[in-house]
Write a structure and sequence with these properties.
The chain is mainly beta. The chain folds into two domains: about 425 residues, Sandwich (Jelly Rolls); about 40 residues, Ribbon (Laminin). Helices cover about 10% and strands about 25% of the residues. The strands form five sheets. Strands 1, 2, 4, 5, 6, 7, 8, 11, 15, 20, 21, 22 and 24 form a 13-stranded mixed sheet that branches. Strands 3, 9, 10, 12, 13, 14, 16, 19, 23 and 25 form a ten-stranded antiparallel sheet that branches. A hairpin with a 4-residue loop joins β7 and β8. The longest helix is centred in the first third of the chain and has 11 residues. It is globular and about 70 Å long. The chain binds 2-acetamido-2-deoxy-beta-D-glucopyranose (3 copies). GO terms for molecular function: glucosidase activity. Belongs to the SKN1/KRE6 family.
């Protein structure tokens, strides 16, 4: 992993006496391209007057970055079929790159044949997808507990033509999105009670006297979900029981266990006392409860393994400008106290409150505001359950959704095919944490919420056919080049005589285009979740330092790097033959991270009798008549 000695001493030499200062910064996940003005932020939540500092950022300024497994210290672009949520796309690592100062997730029409499993015949067969898109995850790389996340993004496609499903979101590190095997019985639990009713459906529960894999006894764990943005485009027009029309933004918290009896009816508003109380919306009537998504039932056999997830969700009216310009999407997440009470999550778009959930609102199910280490995700999905005609129009088979095939035209939203190619352009991602706040923690496996040993012990759940391990180690250099420019220019890397990039200490990736990133602390000995985190370098001094040495801030981090530990990944038995396949089923676990029914064009006539559930990993409408 280390660069040739001559190369690194050259850099350290350049910096001379400054190196010692870098010892004290904790800016190790901070992109040096982040401007000084953004090294701190003011919380927008009224009740919060703490000082915040930047702990992670990616400004995507360096053009030409790619995110295939092992290419980037912050992100992994997955390269596999998406089995969740009736996905119509294949995720390819070719569909995410940086250009013109943005992360560019492109969604295109392209055929992909992949190996699928038929649950009835128990045979593998070649299945085909007609859309290719991208998903980046910081899973098991960068995670945090508590803080402020801010994305700036321009949404993909046409605001009035449905079918695309761009998302900026967060998930607990115990589940890996689209790897369905990792999410069942884990997603989206945020529950630390011993309850005979849920002890079977919650894999890591508070009844267990022994939880194995380094997990604490009598401690309920899971992978809750916070959706910062999910955008629904489509034809404008009134929707039932809300004043919001398309296009809109959904913001949600998804937790289990959910309410089981007298649940709100999809498309209607909840009856008084039948849903979570005291939810906060925009004071200017710009946001509203989302009546199109209350969660899903994950049905398993025997019945004691079935469980309910709840989605507490609000919608905000979007405008055409959200699809043509950058807008700012933010969440402020305050974890609960050690006893699981309190905390909040608040969503803001362009600085205005859209939605707020307090720990007290969750009392009715005794679930908690998340305290799990969570990672970041950015993707554009395409799903027949998101913005597509529902229910299936009369006389339509709704079996195909392919552009240009006349048989499929009745099943797809009008103008859908004009959306391709689409680009979801993300200008930056920034994460802040309150200074000296012991509840705000960095790391994917903090001591009080460890995940590392569990993931190592269940590695197969987090990987798919063709993967040797869940994540490849991140390379530094080795990409082919013909000039230094190909390796990011002289201060990032050089092109060797053999035509391969050699990176400086401060860059990473095959072409040295990514900024190195790491935790300042020894990740094998992480601080207790509710104890003092680490000594902070005052942000005022950080500003001075960054002014002084500008672009060399990153270089200085080299001194810290000596002590740092890259995340470690387990090496599972090498071969691929014994990997279990994921089935073609959908909707299970993380799969169900969104509305199983989209915002329907019309509410199904019989919807009172319809529940959406997962059977053998397949999302189905179950008629209870
Ligand atoms: C994003 O990628 C698409 C397809 O390559 C391209 O047309 C578009 O201009 C890119 N956007 C930016 C801002 O570079
Ligand atoms: C604004 O909010 C109030 C109170 O919730 C509600 O009665 C009213 O109908 C809303 N206005 C619109 C235009 O929806
Ligand atoms: C953080 O804690 C340190 C050590 O206790 C203290 O010196 C410093 O003033 C605190 N900073 C803030 C912003 O509260």
């Amino acid at each position: 992993m280390r660069r040739p000695l001559a190369w690194s001493t050259h850099f350290v030499g350049l910096l001379g006496g400054f190196v010692v200062l870098s010892n004290q910064t904790d800016a190790s996940w901070v992109d040096p391209d982040t401007k000084q003005a953004h090294l701190t932020t003011q919380p927008l939540a009224n009740e919060d007057n703490r000082a915040y500092e930047l702990v992670f950022s990616d400004e995507f300024e360096q053009a030409g970055r790619k995110f295939a497994d092992g290419s980037d210290p912050r992100w992994t672009a997955i390269n596999k079929n998406d089995y969740t949520n009736e996905a119509l796309h294949f995720y390819s690592h070719d569909n995410a790159h940086t250009s013109n100062g943005v992360l560019n997730i492109t969604t295109v029409e392209k055929e992909n044949v992949y190996k699928a499993f038929n649950e009835h015949t128990k045979q593998f067969y070649a299945d085909k997808k007609y859309v290719q898109s991208g998903m980046l995850q910081s899973w098991n790389k960068f995670c945090f507990v508590g803080g402020i996340v801010e994305f700036s993004a321009k949404l993909p496609g046409d605001p009035h033509k449905g079918g695309l499903w761009p998302a900026l979101w967060m998930l607990g590190n115990l589940a890996r999105a689209t790897y369905v095997g990792s999410s069942d019985y884990v997603w989206p639990f945020s529950y630390n009670q011993c309850n005979p009713k849920t002890r079977q459906s919650q894999e890591i529960n508070a009844c267990s006297l022994v939880n194995h894999y380094g997990l604490a006894p009598k401690s309920g764990r899971g992978s809750p979900e916070i959706d910062i943005l999910e955008a629904m485009q489509g034809e404008p027009g009134d929707l039932p029981n809300t004043f919001i029309q398309r296009p809109y933004q959904s913001t949600s918290l998804q937790v289990s266990p959910g309410i089981e009896i007298d649940r709100p009816i999809l498309g209607k508003r909840p009856h008084e006392g039948h849903w979570y109380p005291d939810l906060e919306y925009s004071s200017q009537n710009k946001s509203d409860l989302n009546p199109f998504f209350y969660g899903v039932t994950l049905v398993h056999k025997p019945n004691s393994y079935t469980y309910q997830s709840d989605a507490l969700s609000a919608n905000l009216q979007l405008k055409a400008t959200h699809y043509s310009k950058q807008h700012v999407y933010r969440v402020e997440w305050e974890p609960p106290a050690e006893d699981g009470t309190g905390g909040y999550i608040k969503w803001f778009t362009d600085g205005e409150l859209i939605y707020g959930i307090h720990g007290k609102s969750l009392d009715i199910m005794k679930t908690e505001i998340p305290s799990e280490p969570m990672y970041l995700l950015m993707n554009t999905a395409v799903s027949s359950h998101w913005g597509f005609p529902q229910p299936c129009p009369e006389g339509c088979s709704c079996k195909c959704f392919e552009c240009g095939n006349p048989e499929c035209a009745c099943a797809i939203p009008s103008g859908y095919c004009d959306n391709f190619p689409a680009s979801f352009e993300i200008d930056y991602v920034r994460v802040y944490q309150a200074i000296n706040e012991s509840k705000h923690i960095l790391g994917c496996s903090p001591e009080a919420r460890p995940t590392a040993t569990f993931i190592e012990g269940h590695a197969k759940r987090y990987m798919t056919e063709g993967q040797r391990r869940p994540l490849e180690p991140v390379v530094t250099g080795g990409g082919s080049c013909s000039s230094h420019k190909d390796c990011g220019g002289i201060e990032r890397g050089v092109c060797s005589a053999s035509g391969l990039c050699e990176c400086s200490e401060y860059s990473a990736g095959p072409l040295c285009l990514a900024h190195a990133a790491f935790y300042d602390f020894d990740t094998s000995k992480q601080p207790k979740i509710f104890s003092y985190r680490h000594i902070h370098f005052p942000s005022s001094l950080m500003v001075v330092v960054s002014l002084l040495i500008g672009g060399f801030l990153l270089s200085m981090a080299s001194a810290v790097r000596e002590k740092s530990k890259e995340p470690k990944y387990s090496n599972v038995n090498g071969g691929t033959s014994n990997l279990s396949f994921q089935t073609t089923g959908s909707g299970a676990g993380v799969g169900s991270y969104q509305n199983p029914d989209g915002a329907t064009f019309t509410v199904p006539a019989n919807q009172k009798d319809v529940t959406y559930c997962v059977i053998d990993g397949r999302l189905v409408d179950q008629d209870h008549n």
